[in-house]
Design a protein that fits this description.
The protein is of the alpha/beta class. The protein has 4 helices and 5 strands. Helix content is about 40%, strand content about 35%.
Length: about 120
């Protein structure tokens, strides 16, 4: 099993989570804790950069579903970027593109927060 890691960085008033590895039932709690911590610290503009995400399972998708409404109700959003085709296909199959902004790259996501 590959490792999963999250690196957090700021781009102005937007927090970027760089996730890498495999997001599954064993690692989903790491993402959940990171999102919970951002919300507790009043960081509601969030980009999740998936450029190094190799795999996502339903448990990982569930974490995104659990937090999107909370973040949006607080005036923020979670935008997903830089997905490889395999990861995007999982999101697409389950209808996530209608619920989330899934953008080509981080620059595009940052610009969408400015609008």
């Amino acid at each position: 099993m590959k490792n999963f890691s999250i690196a957090t960085r700021q781009k102005g008033n937007v927090t970027v989570l760089d996730i890498s590895g495999e997001l599954d039932a064993h690692t989903a709690s790491h993402l959940e804790n990171a999102l919970k911590s951002l919300i507790e610290d009043d960081n509601y503009s969030i980009i999740v950069n998936c450029s190094k995400l190799d795999y996502i399972a339903s448990a990982g998708l569930g974490v995104f579903m659990a937090y999107i409404e909370d973040v949006r109700s607080l005036g923020g959003d979670i935008k997903l970027t830089n997905m490889n085709d395999r990861v995007y296909n999982v999101f697409d199959l389950l209808g996530f593109p209608t619920l989330y902004d899934i953008l080509e790259d981080e620059k595009e996501a940052l610009q969408s927060f400015d609008n």
